[in-house]
Amino acid sequence: MTKNTQVAFFMLRHVLPRHDRDSLYNNFEILYENKLQEKSRFLAQFWLWGQILRSLPGLISAIIYWRYTMFKNYLKTTLRNMARNKLYSILNISGLSIGLVCFILIGLYIIHEKSYDRFHKNARNIYRVVKKSNLENGVVRNSATVPSLLALSLKMEYPGIVNDVVRFWHYWGLGFNIQYKDNIFKEVNFAFADSTVFNVFDFEFLIGNPEDALNAPYSVVITESAATKYFGNENPIGKSLRINDGYEVHLTGVVKDLPRRSHFHFDFLTAFSTLYQMPWRGYLENWREDFCYIYILLNDNVSAEMLNEKFPTFIQKYIPSELHAGNSFFLQQLVDIHLKSNLEDEIEIGSQTGYVQIYILFSIALFILIIAIINYINMTTAYYSIRVKEIGVRKVLGSQRIQLVFQFIGESAILCFIALLLSLVVVKAILPIFNAVIGKNLSLSLINPVQLFVSLLGLGILISFISGIYPAFYISGFQPIEVLSSLFKTDMKKGLGRKTLVVSQLIIASLLIIGSLMISRQFDYIHKYNVQFDKDNIIILSVNMTPIAHDHYDAFVNKITENPAIVNATGMRTVVGFEHIKEPFSIKGNPASQQMMPFYLVRHNFVGTFGVEVLAGRDFSRKFSTDEIEAILINQTMAKQLGWSEEEAVGKMLTHPGWGELKVIGVISDFNFESLHSTIKPLVIKLIWPWRQAPLTDYLAVRMNTKDIKNTIQFIGNTWKQFAPNSAFDYYFLNKKLDQFYRTEATFSKASSLFTILAIVLACFGLLGLISFITETKTKEIALRKVLGASVAKIIGLILREFIFLIVIANLIAYPIAYFAVNIWLQNFAYRIQVSFWIFALATVFTFFTSFLAIMFHTLKAAYTNPVDYLRYE
Amino acid sequence: MPELTRKEEQILLAVHFLQNDAYLITIRDRIKQMTGTEYAVGTIYAPLNRLHINGYLDSYMKETKESNKPVRYYRVTKQGYEALAELKKLTEEMWEGFVTPVFEA
């Protein structure tokens, strides 16, 4: 043979259909030899190549047809087997589906949380400048707000790095009274912003021009919903809005509402230049006030690191030297703000510990999926061992091992994809409920369809492989002669393999039950622990900049408390439960003891309004005129921390560097004014100084004691109108707002307990399936025993005894693992439950009960069937 | 396969007439005799394989008379003959009473 023909035949060998290669190859060879006898070598070779080329379409279609036929055959076998073993199929498919549903839901949640602010086209290049200050005694304060002067200086100093800068100021979220004709509303989402805001962020303009919309002072751009709220169907262009009954701003544009997945939702953007014509001017022109939020757009080819490195020199150059100590700036990526940022003075409350939660949720999702897969592997391995005959026959008929492996992986793929489809349907169906529970707006459309398809396909294939590969290799390894002889005993019957499977499944089930019960109990516990002041029936009015904050405060409070439905009311600087400021205090005569302490500024009646208890000493009182200047209340923790008993603390003196000496007049009970995860911190409460009541009284808390809340609020509103006719009456319920505030944590606990329950269900599924199979393999034994005269009760007892032993072993292994794992997890909480042993006992009872159920069912079935049915073939 | 394609029909017939000598090359030659067209080996193989998979043909490996190389020989099965008979009946019914009309010049 010449080189040319060798190449031709080599190629041929590789394109021929594998199932009929030898015959086809020989046919080609015979034909070629015939041609050689008729024609010259050259012509014969020419003919050969032509023949191969012309044959290709036919050969390819033959290959495809062969594959298709084989696939049909496997599919038929699979579906037939599934139908024959309904319990197995139902348990496996539903188990995998549940796992997948959890995985998809959690995946969507994670994608949702990570997709914040990504709709801006420059999102990757936008950063927020934030400030880190090292205060005395190692206290670090990270604030989202920075001095206003920073913006322009950065832009001028580093033109190669900084593309554009925008400042926001939203009056610490206190809100403005906005009036159009007779309508007044309090607007919290109102901010002043530089005209560059539309270069940095993407706002979609419906009316107006982003280029010059905010150029002139007193111009304002509002969102579509705000425009509808104020102007209804009127054309908003050229209209003016009156702010805080003082000045007017003129509308120059209307933009689309910001998507929900944005870390700020300003409805009003007023030209920043307006501020220079207002009393705030002083704040704008110094380096001391952390006044506004600054976002910068970096050039395409620079990294945030480049600017971060330059801040120290920048500070040296621009900032007065007395402000250098301890202050530094750094950049925060826009897309990280929602999940990772938890600084002082955030614009909106993000998800705080979101990142940690997402990791926890992700591990739960993965865990559930792994359980589902382990279940699958366990059950499938057990199940295949009753299909050994089929495998034996296939092997005898010429199946190679690798073909069998692919057959079984293919089978698991069919099952997986059925489960995947099912889970998609389920996800679609339960998403609205899930959204309602967690208060988010998840949907499959968060991911673009192509990505969704590809990732689901990938997931399906991956799971098929992981779950199919072990059983496939395990089962395809049997020798046909053993398998087909009637003496064959599978591993399942030999014992060790079966016992390992059962014990591992039992361990998983126990671990899950113990773990999830502990988790849900812990969450319940911190929820109860958190509420230590009476937050129900309190409404909060926003009184900042209204006459009620100063001139009419007493008159207003007296007037509303005359109503029997209202128990008490007090003014305050910050709302209890959300935020607090910190101030340095020390014990008098001991400056070294100075520490930053959480601090509340309030008006009279704080204790009564919030329902806290005075444990020692007395409450603030109008009878003592000195109270407003030098009296403070402290909480139990504070007294303890300073080394005083509650009684000792009364009368002690503290020093504040700015305000001089302060006298402790009473100790109040502890209440948690911060997050669920933290311990109660020391707290100092002081009355607002008489001469600063106007600027510092921002909120008024009113406690009601009535069922007729609607009328009572209407009464407060009417009284408000008498005293402050030009300010919007704006209120909210403290408990609702607190629930919202702690929503992520509440959501998280709800979601995780839901998923752990599912995990338990899954583990029990696995147990149920596995034990069912094993009892089924014992049907012949049962039948034989029955024939030999054993009673049903005796048979059940016999089989049960074997399993009880396994259950005990599994639980003994599971206990220490669960104990240590739970203990480690609990270390994360300031307030934690004790590990209680009844939970362990419960887990044992649960696993025992599930096993018992499965054993009883199958044993009874076997015991009450005519033994002939089982023994017929022996 | 409820209906046979034209090529499948030819192949079945070829296998039948070839008796005990039906393999890819002889089938191909036979079809050339019947229809005058010389098909590529692969083009014959595709429908042959389909008929085989679907049970109209069965097969065995045997060395050919001329060379000593083993190739796949085919035989029409009972199912194959039933299909052929059915086809013949249908065709005859279809053609019954057909006369080519005479066109006048």
Give an overview in words.
The complex is a heterodimer of chains A (874) and B (105). The model of chain A has no long low-confidence stretch (mean pLDDT 82). In chain A, strand 9 and strand 10 form a beta hairpin. In chain A, the strands form three sheets. In chain A, strands 1, 2, 3, 4, 5, 6, 7, 8, 9, 10, 11, 12 and 13 form a 13-stranded mixed beta sheet that branches. A six-stranded mixed barrel of chain A has the order 16-17-22-19-21-20. Chain A has a four-stranded antiparallel beta sheet with strand order 15-23-14-24. Chain A has 30 helices and 24 strands. Chain B is an alpha+beta fold and 105 residues long. Chain B has a single domain (6-93), classed as Arc Repressor Mutant, subunit A. Chain B has helices at 6-18, 24-35, 41-53, 78-95; strands at residues 57-63, 70-76. In chain B, strands 1-2 form a two-stranded antiparallel sheet. The model of chain B has no long low-confidence stretch (mean pLDDT 89). Chains A and B meet through helix 2 and helix 3 of A and helix 3 and strand 2 of B.
Please summarize what this structure is:
Chain A is of the alpha+beta class and 874 residues long.
Question: Helices, strands, pairings?
Answer:
The complex is a heterodimer of chains A (874) and B (105).
Chain A: H1 3-15, H2 21-38, H3 41-84, H4 86-114, E1 126-134, E2 140-143, H5 149-157, E3 162-169, E4 176-180, E5 183-187, E6 190-193, H6 197-200, E7 205-207, E8 219-223, H7 224-231, E9 240-243, E10 247-255, E11 268-271, H8 281-284, E12 293-298, H9 304-318, E13 327-333, H10 334-340, H11 354-384, H12 388-396, H13 401-438, H14 449-476, H15 480-484, H16 491-494, H17 496-530, E14 538-542, H18 553-562, E15 566-572, E16 581-587, E17 595-602, H19 606-610, E18 614-617, H20 627-630, E19 631-635, H21 636-641, H22 646-649, E20 653-656, E21 660-668, E22 684-687, H23 693-696, E23 699-704, H24 709-723, E24 731-733, H25 734-741, H26 743-777, H27 779-787, H28 792-826, H29 837-864, H30 867-871
Parallel strand pairs in A: 6-11, 8-10, 17-22, 19-21
Antiparallel strand pairs in A: 1-2, 1-12, 1-13, 3-6, 3-12, 4-5, 4-9, 7-10, 8-11, 9-10, 14-23, 14-24, 15-23, 16-17, 16-20, 18-21, 19-22, 20-21
Chain B: H1 6-18, H2 24-35, H3 41-53, E1 57-63, E2 70-76, H4 78-95
Antiparallel strand pairs in B: 1-2
